[in-house]
Fold these 2 entries.
Entry 1:
Amino acid sequence: MRVLVVEGHEVLGNGLRWLLTRVPWIERCTLAHEPQGGYDLALVDVGLGLPMCERVAATGARTALLTSRWDDVSLRTARSAGAFGVISRDLPARDLLAAVRTLARGGMPEPRPVAAGGGTRFTPREREILRLVGAGLTNAEIGAEMFLAPGTVKHHMLGIYDKLGARNRAGAVHAARRLGIVADRREPFTPPLDPLRVLVADPVDVRRAGVLLALHGRPWVEACAGARTLEDARAMAERLDPQLVLAGTPDLRLPGIPTLALREDGTIEQRVESDTGSVSPRERDVLFAFAAGATNPVIATQLGLSPNTVKQHASSIFRKLGVRNRAEAVRRADELGLLAA
């Protein structure tokens, strides 16, 4: 089989191509950004748009859409764009290859729902709204950014609260980050001057493979290795003695080792510099309460404080973290590790 991968993210595309070339029934796998003829199968990133899928399918290749676990793409939508299935990049390597095999044999692969609370799925628009909420934007500002009416944004937020089981914006941001629904957009990663031993801890096989391929040969990488689970990461850390961990999810951080997060597209987030020591233990308690979606009266009762004192702590937290509201404070605190258990 000859396979064409049309992927908008180079790291993910290279990781997928590497996995596909490991199986004997695939003769050739090519990564491209535009349709090409002469292929039996084609896998098209849904982020490139359904018209791209239509153009690729027109070449005669049996085509499937590539999605992430939070992309809500039905088989009916895929069929309308000329595709014969939907394949999630986040599948374990064995399941992903099985889905491609199903496509090759004339089947129509469709990913199982994967999400928070019983198969709930989030649309790209909902994820973008969550990202902007985490950046501290109001409904009106989000509407202006996304060309939506503030009322439409509010409607989406109510749906997001329901899906996440959150009571307010701060609670929604915290839940979304814990579940990996949103990816941050920070400054581009600046490589260190001295070579480091790097551990890539990521449950997504395609992304982990792509990141490891990208790291090989980099002058700032002395050695690198990958791990899928926290248990694997701990075992690999004993052998590699890493000086840096690139984590695909927050729960794969290793105590005592500097950690940077991987974005959904496999790129590395720049570390946020902040004086985390300036946040007092009591303020950290208030941050945990923010993340749980608690109101000022509830926080006051839980911590034995007056509501006015809670407001003073909140103002101090906003100033120290350089944010303007609770949702942004939760996002920044999580980035800085202040909400780690």
Entry 2:
Amino acid sequence: MMLFYVLGGLLVIASLMVVFLSSVVHSAMALVAALFLIAILFLTLHAPMVGVLQVLVYAGAIMVLFLFVIMLLNPAAVEPRRRFGWGFGIVASLLLAGALVAVMTNGEAPLDPVAATELFGSPETLAKSLFTDFVLPFEIASVLLLVAIIGAVVLAKRES
């Protein structure tokens, strides 16, 4: 249980770094750290398949695409414009802390690790869920990512 709190605290710190770092590249690297911490949390839930997929798909492939687009858009020209400022971050942090306190004081027992593996940890369950219930959202997300990358390339070429 203590490991969860340590990993959760590190994850919150990495997530806040994603939001508040001024450099876009540093923010992307903090996102990689957050994604690795999420993968470790999946491993503590006895869901090794989801943890490995988290590292391969998100921390690996998706972050390579993000960094490619960041470098394509010239991060020196895209300096942060803080429209919301610290006030927005503080309000969001307080809301997150309130939700965390509400969840921690709920008093329910944590999920049984064996039940967690049966719910989402095995490759068979993951494949069945992905190709039956979540085919449409999965395809929409992939097309949305493709359109975003094409849009970034078009914007970068127009400015050159």
